[in-house]
Specification:
Strand order of the largest sheet: 1-2-3-5-4
Radius of gyration: 17 Å
Shape: elongated
Number of helices: 2
Helix content: 10-25%
Mean pLDDT: 84
Order of helices and strands: HEEEHEE
Distance between the termini: 21 Å
CATH architecture: 2-Layer Sandwich
Number of strands: 5
Length: 165
């Protein structure tokens, strides 16, 4: 039977890959969580540069990838690349950070491996990314002194059909 994973494991694998790849060049890597409207937690303490992963939605793949025992979820992912408004040449630097993230999501094709796209260590529980793009995020008040670009892509993740424990 083909490999499956969980949403938690897929999310954790992408975050771990970001941390490993960028190391101490990025001060915060983690999940995109909206700010607490009462305390302002997260956004007030968020150090930049930051990379925040968001699963913005998914649909069940209607292609033949859906097999007995695993659910093919076509996930829409976003990595929010966040910098302080005090960053010199802010928009150019945001674009450069987004380009570095794009290169991780969709690395260049090598001569010995024609598969293009990061599987995040999930092996055959993930298909290569598709539709990779980067653009400025709409201004969000909760960014509180920060600006962001988002790198977006779609990727099929194969989940076990069982309910989580």
């Amino acid at each position: 039977m083909a490999t499956t994973t969980t949403m938690d494991a897929a999310h954790d694998a992408i975050v771990a890959t970001l941390r490993d790849h960028f190391g101490d060049k990025v001060l915060a890597v983690g999940a995109y969580e909206p700010a607490n409207p009462y305390t302002g937690d997260l956004t007030e303490t968020l150090e930049t540069p930051a990379l925040l992963l968001e699963l913005s939605g998914f649909r069940v793949s209607e292609d033949d990838q859906h097999q007995i025992g695993r659910l093919a979820c076509d996930c829409s992912w976003a990595i929010h690349c966040v910098l302080s408004l005090s960053t010199p040449r802010l928009q150019q630097t945001l674009a450069q950070l987004a380009a570095a993230v794009v290169s991780l999501v969709l690395p260049p094709i090598t001569t010995d491996d024609w598969t293009r796209g990061n599987l995040w260590g999930l092996d055959d529980a993930a298909d290569p990314p598709r539709g990779v793009s980067a653009s400025p995020n709409q201004f969000s008040p909760e960014l509180n002194g920060r600006n962001a670009w988002a790198v977006r892509w779609d990727q099929i993740i194969y989940l076990d059909e069982e309910l989580p424990a």
